[in-house]
Specification:
22 helices
Length: 528
């Protein structure tokens, strides 16, 4: 892969380092890497210029810093073929700020990429030179097909093994890519369906709709398979999803993994058409600059739904920036579970006894003999996270745990799973939900059986945390006897007998009661 790097201040040099990837140096020291060194991406789009600094778990990077400026570089491009002069100046100011911030944060490496507007503009090369001269940032131009691939890789960062179509809408272009399952990316295409490009079409709304219809018909011919799921990437899609959330009264305001049916989206598009922009801004907190692009994006989305006929639509907050990280991951790293990796990293960084979460998982596992792998990963994640919020004030620790789980910027976590995980962690620190301050409407995302199960898991962790030993299973273990309707604690050592004091007994009893069982204790020390 070719890497654009600065040599002297006034020129661009292309050097080939195929083993390095787009960042100019390896991000991951080895296939088994767990942590990511601080790394930055500046994404210069047709509408926005954004800087993201990643840190944390290698497979599930956290957003150490995230800032966006809506510059509108591509505004008026259809008429002039050049970057918007005001947007160009705003972008230069933003990029100077970003370069200074990254230097202060010690971010290295830092990759700067640009998409459709800079790629296609007559003065794109001049803009790149100005940026290099004023900031020292060398811009790498991303082709349309490459943009589609990187966006698809960003989706895979959050959904390993995802299948369906990804559709990434920017200010000037829209990219489509097929996810074929198992991390494989198929056909890719870039078309001129960004709202800023559509604004330049003469002939009014009828001409715009005809152009959109024709372009999407071409896409349909190139992607003829029955793709059941459509992943939406891009700020205009997210703005539509925010409106959908408000219209439906959806309780969890997390865009990533937000699911919509085509029917619901069409209702939201009707709602957008009849609602003034100021009302939408007040309802969603979306900027006016973004909202003015939404009506055109909504027309594109409506036609996508009509022709591609997906059964399920999901919002992805991960796109080209995350795709650049995914590109440099080894296959071994890509196959790891992003939720478990993030939880493991949080435990290593914040828990009082790192490593105990894995032992706690094996201790509570007998309580869930029928759990399928998807549920077991949630139980495992909860155990890894059971002690990472211990620094919170005791009066608010339970709510902090719930908020951290439900609102965390994590991939690989459906909305109902966020609530399940948050509820379990709440009960890790509090035996009941009375006097806890969280939106109880969130529980509507769970079935009643899942609410009860999360409560049992929380109580089990609350009890198991009192047996904080290097290897708790060497000292005691749990057994569920449904025939005798008993939850049995088997004591195996003198240490377990000492630890099973008054408070531990009360928590054990509360755990048994939540399971509809009678607590029982068996002393097996004499048989060992």
């Amino acid at each position: 892969m070719s890497i654009v790097v600065p040599a002297e201040k006034s020129e661009l040099v292309v050097e080939d380092h195929p083993e390095w990837g787009p960042f100019g140096a390896p991000l991951f020291d080895a296939d088994h890497a767990r942590s990511l060194s601080r790394v930055g991406v500046i994404d210069i789009g047709s509408n926005s210029v954004r800087m993201v600094v990643f840190d944390g778990a290698a497979r599930s990077p956290a957003y150490f810093y995230n800032e966006k400026i809506l510059c509108g570089l591509g505004e008026g491009f259809a008429e002039t073929g050049r970057l918007n002069p005001e947007g160009r100046q705003r972008a230069l100011v933003a990029l100077r700020r970003f370069a200074t911030l990254c230097k202060g944060m010690g971010v290295a490496p830092l990759l700067t990429v640009a998409t459709a507007a800079v790629r296609d503009a007559q003065d794109g090369a001049d803009f790149r030179k100005d940026v290099l001269d004023q900031t020292g940032l060398a811009i790498r131009i991303v082709t349309g097909e490459e943009e589609a691939r990187l966006s698809a890789q960003g989706v895979l960062l959050g959904w390993p093994g995802a299948y369906g179509l990804i559709c990434d809408i920017g200010g000037s272009s829209m990219e489509l890519a097929a996810l074929e399952g198992g991390g494989s990316i198929g056909r890719r295409r870039s078309v001129d369906l960004g709202p800023l490009k559509l604004m330049g079409i003469t002939g009014g709304k009828r001409a715009i709709k005809a152009h959109i219809k024709a372009r999407i018909a071409d896409l349909k011919a190139e992607f003829p398979e029955d793709h059941q799921r459509l992943f939406l990437v891009g700020g205009s899609w997210r703005a539509i999803a925010r409106v959908d959330m408000e219209r439906r009264g959806y309780p969890l305001k997390v865009l990533h993994e937000y699911r919509m049916t085509p029917k619901a989206i069409l209702e939201t598009i009707k709602y957008i058409a009849k609602t003034d922009i100021e009302t939408l801004r007040a309802q969603t907190g979306t900027s006016l600059e973004r909202l003015r692009l939404v009506p055109l994006a909504a027309i594109v989305l409506k036609e996508l739904l009509r022709q591609l006929k997906p059964r399920d639509v999901a919002i992805s907050s991960y796109g080209i920036r995350e795709g650049l990280l995914y590109e440099q991951m080894s296959e071994e790293l890509r196959q790891r579970d992003p939720l478990i990796e993030a939880a493991r990293h949080a435990e290593a960084m914040s828990a009082r006894i790192p490593g105990f979460g894995r032992k706690l998982y094996h201790f509570v596992e007998p309580l869930f003999p029928q759990a399928k792998p998807a549920k077991k990963r949630l139980i495992r994640a909860a155990c890894l996270l059971h002690d990472v919020s211990w620094r919170a004030h005791p009066d608010y620790r339970a709510e902090t745990c719930f908020d951290n789980a439900t609102r965390a910027n994590l991939g690989g976590l459906a909305h109902w799973e966020r609530v399940y995980l948050g509820l379990a962690l709440l009960h890790r620190y509090k035996s009941n939900r009375e006097a806890t301050h969280f939106d109880t409407n969130l529980l509507t995302l769970l079935r009643e059986a899942e609410v009860q199960e999360a409560e049992i898991l929380g109580r089990a962790m609350r009890f198991g945390a009192m047996l904080t030993l290097e290897k708790p299973l060497d000292h005691c273990y749990l057994e569920v006897n449904r025939r005798r309707k008993k939850l049995i604690l088997h004591l195996l050592s003198d240490a377990a007998d000492d630890l099973f004091g008054e408070v531990a007994q009360a928590r054990f009893g509360a755990l048994a009661l939540s399971m509809g069982l009678t607590p029982a204790v068996t002393d097996e020390r004499s048989s060992r």
